[in-house]
Amino acid sequence: RTFAVQDRVSACLPACLPACLSACLPACLPACLPACLPAFTEHCRMTVTYTRRVADARLGTFSLLLLRWRGSIYKLLYRELFIFLGLYYALSATYRVILTEGQRRMFEKLVLYCNHYSGLIPVSFVLGFYVSVVVSRWWSQYESIPWPDRLSSLVSCHVQGADERGRLLRRTLVRYANMASVLILRSVSTAVYKRFPTMEHVVRAGRGRCSTDRTAAFFLQDSDLTNRAAPPSGFMSAEEHKKFKSLQSPHNKFWVPCVWFTSLAVQARREGRIDNDVVLQAILNELNTLRQCCGTLYSYDWISVPLVYTQVVTVAVYSFLLACLIGRQFLDPAQGYPDHDLDLYIPVFTLLQFFFYLGWLKISLLSVDEMYDNLPALERDLYW
Amino acid sequence: RTFAVQDRVSACLPACLPACLSACLPACLPACLPACLPAFTEHCRMTVTYTRRVADARLGTFSLLLLRWRGSIYKLLYRELFIFLGLYYALSATYRVILTEGQRRMFEKLVLYCNHYSGLIPVSFVLGFYVSVVVSRWWSQYESIPWPDRLSSLVSCHVQGADERGRLLRRTLVRYANMASVLILRSVSTAVYKRFPTMEHVVRAGRGRCSTDRTAAFFLQDSDLTNRAAPPSGFMSAEEHKKFKSLQSPHNKFWVPCVWFTSLAVQARREGRIDNDVVLQAILNELNTLRQCCGTLYSYDWISVPLVYTQVVTVAVYSFLLACLIGRQFLDPAQGYPDHDLDLYIPVFTLLQFFFYLGWLKISLLSVDEMYDNLPALERDLYW
Amino acid sequence: RTFAVQDRVSACLPACLPACLSACLPACLPACLPACLPAFTEHCRMTVTYTRRVADARLGTFSLLLLRWRGSIYKLLYRELFIFLGLYYALSATYRVILTEGQRRMFEKLVLYCNHYSGLIPVSFVLGFYVSVVVSRWWSQYESIPWPDRLSSLVSCHVQGADERGRLLRRTLVRYANMASVLILRSVSTAVYKRFPTMEHVVRAGRGRCSTDRTAAFFLQDSDLTNRAAPPSGFMSAEEHKKFKSLQSPHNKFWVPCVWFTSLAVQARREGRIDNDVVLQAILNELNTLRQCCGTLYSYDWISVPLVYTQVVTVAVYSFLLACLIGRQFLDPAQGYPDHDLDLYIPVFTLLQFFFYLGWLKISLLSVDEMYDNLPALERDLYW
Amino acid sequence: RTFAVQDRVSACLPACLPACLSACLPACLPACLPACLPAFTEHCRMTVTYTRRVADARLGTFSLLLLRWRGSIYKLLYRELFIFLGLYYALSATYRVILTEGQRRMFEKLVLYCNHYSGLIPVSFVLGFYVSVVVSRWWSQYESIPWPDRLSSLVSCHVQGADERGRLLRRTLVRYANMASVLILRSVSTAVYKRFPTMEHVVRAGRGRCSTDRTAAFFLQDSDLTNRAAPPSGFMSAEEHKKFKSLQSPHNKFWVPCVWFTSLAVQARREGRIDNDVVLQAILNELNTLRQCCGTLYSYDWISVPLVYTQVVTVAVYSFLLACLIGRQFLDPAQGYPDHDLDLYIPVFTLLQFFFYLGWLKISLLSVDEMYDNLPALERDLYW
Amino acid sequence: RTFAVQDRVSACLPACLPACLSACLPACLPACLPACLPAFTEHCRMTVTYTRRVADARLGTFSLLLLRWRGSIYKLLYRELFIFLGLYYALSATYRVILTEGQRRMFEKLVLYCNHYSGLIPVSFVLGFYVSVVVSRWWSQYESIPWPDRLSSLVSCHVQGADERGRLLRRTLVRYANMASVLILRSVSTAVYKRFPTMEHVVRAGRGRCSTDRTAAFFLQDSDLTNRAAPPSGFMSAEEHKKFKSLQSPHNKFWVPCVWFTSLAVQARREGRIDNDVVLQAILNELNTLRQCCGTLYSYDWISVPLVYTQVVTVAVYSFLLACLIGRQFLDPAQGYPDHDLDLYIPVFTLLQFFFYLGWLKISLLSVDEMYDNLPALERDLYW
C-alpha cells in the first residue's frame, strides 16, 4: 500500500527493458523487471496523455488540465487541506463566538503578532534549496538504472556457436547481468521488491513458459527455440542460490553475479567461443559499466539526503502554516487594524500559500504514496 | 494545427541530417527526417535573422527587434491580453457606474485587500524554478537527437566490396540505423509523426526516385548509381514490417532495427566484408551510442515534468493575475487611500507584470503552438 | 563595423590554432583562421593586461582599473546615458518651469505612482535568469571550437611515406579537416566571414607563398620543404569546388570535406600508407570528434535563445528605466511628500541602477559591437 | 572522539568495498577499509530506516520522523539552544527586574535598533551560497572514492596461471592497488586513520587469519585456498615498507604502490602471464583511473574551502543571532511601540530562525562530530 | 610582491607532482614545478590545519578559528576598514561639531536620502552572480592542470630497453611532456614565472645534481642510476632552444614540445622500442589529453571574465559602501527621525555589511595578494 521514494525510480524503468532483457535469454526472462510493468504502463498512460494535453493547450482546453484529479496537486493535498480548514474555522468560530470582549482583544494582538513574524521564516529559501537538491538527485538516480541492452547485444554478437552449449553460454551470461540488476533493484525499489519478496522468488521466477519466448526466438533468430522444453530455472539456479547464500556479507551482494559473469566470460574465451581479447575486453567493459550503475544506485539508496535537511525543511513549512493558521484570521473590521478592513470568511490567499508551499514540500519528499496508491493490483504480467 | 512540446525538438533537427542520411543509403533516403524540412527551414530563417538583428543592434535599430510580430511575445499573448483587459475594464466600469456608494466602499476594501495579499503569492520563486527545470530539460533533449553521421561514415569506410552485395549491405545497415531514428522520432515529435502517420508510410516512403540520388552518388563516389533502377522499398521492407508487427510489445519498438543491425554486422564480419574485430567493435560501439540517444529521447518523452509542478506553477500565475485584476483597479482618489492618488485608467505596470509572468509561463509550458501555427503547409519535400 | 554575437567566439580562436593548422599543411595554411589574428591579438592584449591589473590591485592602483575607458562599461553605456539624462532633465525643467501649479500637483502624483509601482517590475529576477543562460551558452560555444591539433598530430604520425605522395596525402587530409572548420566558422563568425566573403576566397586563399612555410617545415621536420614550389591551391582546389557546388543543399555543407577525408583515409589504408585498422580507427575517431564540434557550433548558431526571452528581458529593463525617468524626479520639498525632502538635482542612485541593469542587459545581449568597434582594420595577416 | 569533515566520506565507504577488496586478495584483506565497517553499518542503519519512514509517511506517522532524536537537528543544536535561551532570559530578566525606568527606555531603544538593523545582515544570501558550495563539494568527494572492483575483476580475469606464482601475482597486484587506497584514505578520513594510526599498522594488518578467507576462496573459485597457511604479511611487506620509507617526500606517497603495480604488470606481461598488450593496456588504464581518484581525493583534502568564506558565513550567522538576542526581546506593551503589543515570554519565531540558520550552518560546516559522537567503539571488525 | 589571480592555481599544484615528474626523468627533474614548492607547502600547512580545526570545532574551540589572523578576512580587510572608519568618523565629527544648525538639518536630510535609496543598489544580486562565475571558473582551472603521471607511467612501461638509448628515449619523452607543462605554467602562474623568468632558466634548470636522483632511481628500479654522471641539460637542450626560438609565433608555443614528443614516439615505434600500434596509440592519446589540459589552461588565462562584469560589481559594492558612509550616520535623536532614536557612535551593523560585501568582493576578485604577501622567500627548493 505504501510505496517508497524509490518507487519513482522503479516506476520509470524503461519500456524497452523487458524486451531487451528478453533478447538472448528466454530462460531468465519471465522474472525481473516485468514486475514493474503494470506500474509503468500506468505511469506511461498518465504522463503521455498529460503531455498531449499541454500541447493542445489553447485558451479553453488547458484549464481542463488544471482540473485533472488523478496525479494532481489537489489529490495530493486534499486531506491536509481539510485539516487545515477545520482548524482555521474552529479558531475563527472560537474568536467570533466564544471569546469574551477582553479575550478577543488579546487574540487580535496574537494574530497581528503571528502575521507579522511569520514573514521571518525563510520558507522559500529553505524549500528552494531542498527541492533542487532532491530533484537533481532523483534524475541522477534515474540515469543510473542499469540497462542491459548494450551488454546483451555484445554478448549475442560475439559469443559464438549455434549449438546448445553456445546458446547456454549466451543465456547464462546475460542472465548473470540481469541477476545483478534484479538484486540491486530489489533493494532499491519497492515495486520490484514486491515482485520478488524473497530470494526464493528470484530462483523460482519464470518456471512456467510464457509467450515471450516468441520474442526471444525473434531476437535470437532462432527459429526452433519455441519448440524447446521449458528452461529449468529462473534467474538463479538452486546451486547458484546455495553458493550465493553461503557468502556472508552485511551488504547487498549484487556484485556476486558480476564475478560469475567475468569467470564465465574468461572461460568462454578459453574455449574459443569468444574470438579474441579485443572482444572479451569490450564485453568486460560493458559489464563494468553496468556494475558501476548498480553501485551508484546502491550508494544513492544508502546515502540519503541528511535527516537534518529534511527536518529543517519540514519544520519550516509546518511552523509557517501554523503561524498562518493564527495570523491570517479575519479580525473584526470595527477595531480598525491596518489591513484588516475586510472580513471575507474564506482566506483565499492563505490557501494559495498553503497549496504552494505544502505542495512543493510533498513533491520534494517524494512521499508520493497517495499518488501511486491506486496502482493496479499486481497482475500476472507477461513474464510472470 | 496543434504542435506538441516535442515540436521544438523536431523543429531543431539539424540541417545536415538529411544529407548525412543520404550518405550511403539512397534507397531509404526519400523518407524520414525530410518531413521536418519545411519546419526547420522556417525556424532557421527566423532565428538567424534575429541573431543578425541583435548584432546590428545599435541605438535605433534594436527597437525594431522589439517590434517584430512573428514569434514574438506579443503574438504569444495578445489573446490573453484582450481577455484580461476586457475583464479589467468590465470591473472598472461596474465600480464607476453601476455600484451604489455603499457598494463602492466595499469594493474598495476588496481591492485593497487583494492588492495587499497578492504579494504573498511566490510567483517568481515558483516560476523561476520551473523555467530553469524545463529549459535545461529541453536542451538535454536536443542534445540526445540521434545523429547517424558518425555511424554511417564508419559503415561506408569499413564495410568493403564494390559489388551489388557490398552496396546492399552498407545501405541496409544504415537503413536500419535510420529506421530506429524514425521510429523514435515518430513517437516523440508531432512533425515527424505527421509525415509518417502510420507504419505504412514508413514502409512506402521513398518509392518514387528523387533528385537526392545524385547526392547519394556523390557520397558513395559511386558514379553509376544514378543509372540504377529505383530501389524497391522505403525505410522498411514489407517482410521486415511483417516481422516487426509480429513482435508484440506494449512499448516503442525502436530497438528492433538495432537488433537487426547487429545481426547483419556480425554476418558481414563472417563473410569477410568487415576486416577484423576491432572495426566491428567500433561499428557496434557507434550503434550503441545511437541506441542510447534513442533511449534517452524515449525516456524524456515518457517521464514528463510531474503534473504537480505544472499545476502549482499555473495556479500560482493565474491566481496572481486574478488577484491583480481586482487589486490593481484605480480607486476614487477622493477617498484618500494611500497609493491611490491617481486615476490613470490604464494600469501600465499591471500590464507589464502580466507580460512578464504570463510570458514566462507560456515559454516554459513550451506550448508554443501559436508561435508555430503558421508553419508552411507540409510541401512535398526534397525526399518525399 | 558591426560585429555579431559570434564575434566573441571568433575573437577567442586560440592562439596556437594557426600554428597547429600549419603543422602539416603548408599548402592550405595561408588562409583560414588567420583572418581573426588581428582580432584576437587585440583581444589578447586587452584582457591579459587587465588580469595583471587586478593582480596588482592594491588600494590605490585598483581604482585605475575602474577608470579604464576601453572595453569598459562607461564606453558601453555613455550614449544611452546621455539620452537618459537629457530626457530626465527635460522632464525636470518642464516640471519646475513650464507647468502651472495645478499641473505640478498632478505631475507629482504621477511621479509618486511611477516610483511606487516600478518596484513591481521583476527586473533582477528576469535579468538574472537571462544572463546566466546566455553566459553558459557562450562558454559552451567556445568549448565547441574544433581544434585540429589532435587530428593533425595523429595524421602526421601514422600516415607514412617520405615521398611526394605521402606528403600530399598528409596535407590533403589535414586540409580537408581545416576546410570543414573554415566552412563552419565562416557561417558562425563575422570575422572569419569577412576574411572569406565568398567561396572564391576559400579557393584562392594562400596562393601566394608566405613565411609560415618555415613553420610548417619545422613541424614536418622536412628540411627541403622550403625549397619547393608554391602549392597550387588554397583550402579547396577548383575541382573540389565544382564538386562542392554541384551538391545542392539548403544547409551548411561543412560535412562534405569530412566525407572526403574519410574516403581518402580509407584509400591510404588500402595503399598501406596507414599500417593497420587500429590506427585508422583512431584517426577516424578524431575526425568524428572534430565533426561533432562543428555540428555543435552549427546548432548553437541555428538555435538562438528564443526571441520571446530577449523581448521579455528588454521590455522589462527599458520599461523599468522609463518608470525611473518619471518616478525618480525630485519633487518640491515644500509639498512634504515622504522621502522627497531633498532636492539634489542629480539622481545619483537612479544613475547607478541605470548602470547596473542596462550594463548587464548589454553584456547579456552580447551586442558588444561598441566594444569591438575599434578593432584594427583587417591587415594582411601572416598567412594572408 | 572528534571526527573530521572527512568522516562523512569515510562513513560512506560503500558496503561492497570490503567484499570487492577480498576478491582476489585474501592476504591483504584483513586490513584496510574494514576499519570503517562499524561506522558505516551504523550510518547505513540510520539512513535506510529514515528513508523507509519517509516512504511510510502518511499524515500521522511522518510526525514521528520529525521527533527522532538521533542524527536529528535537535541533537545537533540543543547545547547552543540552551546557551541562547539562557542569555535571552538573562537579558529579559535584567530588563524587567533590574533596570531603572530610564534605563528601560534606553534598552527599549536599543532593542528597536537591533531589531530594525538585523535585517541588514544578508544571512540567507551568504549561507545559501556557502551551503551549495559545500554540498556539491562533498558529493564530488564521495564520487572520487577509489573503488577497486573494476581493476580487480580485470586482474583476476587476465593474469593467468593457477599455480602459486600466478596466484601471488594476482594478489600482489590487487594488494598494491588497495595499498594506494589505504594510504590516501588514511590521510583523508579520520575513521581509517584511527584504524591505521601508524604505518606499522598497515604492515601488520591481517596477520591473523580470519573468516573472510572463505569469501576470497569463493571469489577465486579456488577451493583449496582455505587450507593454506596464513599469508605472511598485511598490506605492505616489511621490505616494501623499508623501500617506502626510504623515499623522502614532503607529500603523501600514495602513488608509490601505483608505480610498483605498473612495474609488476609489465613483468607479468613479459613472463607471458598477461597475454597481449591490449589486455595490459586495459589493466593500466583502470589503474590510472584509480590513481586519478586518489589524486582527486587528495586535492580535495588539500584545498579546503577558503578560510575567508567560512569566516564570513560564521560571523554573519553568529552576529545575526546576537542581534536577535537583543532585538527580539519582548518590550513593555504599555509603551506602545509598534509590533510590540504582546508580551509572550517565549520568542517562538526567533527560536525558529535560530533553528534554521544555525542548523544550516552546522550542516554546512559538516562538523558533525556530535552526530557521530556515539559511534560504536571500534570493535574488532571482520577483517581485523 | 604582487601575485596574480593565477597564483592560486599555481599554489595548488599538487604535492605529488614533483614526485611523479621525477618518475622517469632524473635529468629534467631539477627544474619545473618545484619552484612552487615553498608556495604550496605553505598553502598546505595552512589549509590542512584549518580543516582539523573545523573538525575539532566544539562550542569553545571553534571560536579560535574565527580569531585566526593569517589568511583571514580581518587581515584581508583591515586596511580598507580603517579608511572606512576614518571617513565615517570624520563625517560624524563634522556633523556634530562643525556644521551650523541649518546645515545639520540639511545633512540629516541627505543622510535619510542616502539611507533610503542605498537599498536600490542590487549588491547581493550582482555580487552573487559574479562570485559564482568566478569560483566555478577557478575550480575548472584547477582541474585543468596537466598531470604528467599517467603519461609517464605509460612511457616507463612501454618504451623498452634497459640500455642507454632506451633510458634516453624514456627520459626525453617525459622531458618533452614536462616542458610543455612548464611553458604553459610559466605563462599562467606568477610563481612558476618567478622560478623561470627567462627561457634561459628553463634551459639551465637542474644542471646541478640533486638529491632527487635517488627518488628517480627508486622509480626506475634502476639501481646504478645514482652512479651516473650528471645529465647534461635542464628542461631544454641548447639545440632545442635554438629550434624553439627560430619558430616565430605571436602566441605561446607550448605545443612545440608536443610535436617533438610525437615525432620521437613514432621514431621509437619504428626502432621497435615500442612494441605495437595499440601501445603507441595509447601513449599518443595520453599526450593529447595533456595537450588539451594545457590548451584549456591557456584559454582560461586568455579569456578573462569580461572587464564590464568586474566594473559593474566593483562600482556596485563601492557605491553601496559610499552610500552607507553617509546614510548610516547617527542623527540627533532629539530630531525624532524614525529609526534614529539611538546614538550609538559605533555603527555595528554597517560594519558587518562592510565585512560581508567587501569580503566577498575581495575573494571573488581573487586579488588575494595580501593573503599571500608573506609567502616565504623562494628558497632553493629540492630540485633547484
Give an overview of the whole structure:
Five copies of one chain form a homopentamer. Chain A is mainly α and 384 residues long. In chain A, 64% of the residues lie in helices and 0% in strands. Chain A contains 17 helices and no strands. Chain A has helices at residues 7-11, 16-21, 37-56, 61-66, 73-98, 101-117, 123-143, 149-158, 164-188, 190-195, 199-204, 212-220, 238-246, 255-270, 277-302, 307-327, 348-365. In chain A, α9 runs antiparallel to α14, α9 (164-188) runs parallel beside α15 (277-302) and α14 (255-270) runs antiparallel to α15. The radius of gyration of chain A is 28 Å and the shape is rod-shaped. The two termini of chain A are 21 Å apart. Chains C and E meet through α2, α3, α4, α7 and α8 of C and α5, α6, α7, α14 and α15 of E.
Round the mean pLDDT of chain A to the nearest integer and report it: 69
Give the overall shape of chain A: rod-shaped
Largest sheet of chain A: none
Contiguous low-pLDDT stretches of chain A (5 residues minimum) are: 1-61, 207-232, 367-384
- The multimeric state of the shown protein is homopentamer
The beta-strand count of chain A equals 0
Gyration radius of chain A, to the nearest Å?
Answer: 28 Å
Number of helices of chain A: 17
User: Secondary-structure element order of chain A, as H and E?
Assistant: HHHHHHHHHHHHHHHHH
Gap between N and C termini of chain A, in Å? 21 Å
Helix percent of chain A reads 55-70%
Structural class of chain A: mainly alpha
The largest chain-to-chain contact, stated as pair and per-chain residue counts, equals: B-C, 73 and 74 residues
- Which band does the percent of strand residues of chain A land in? under 5%
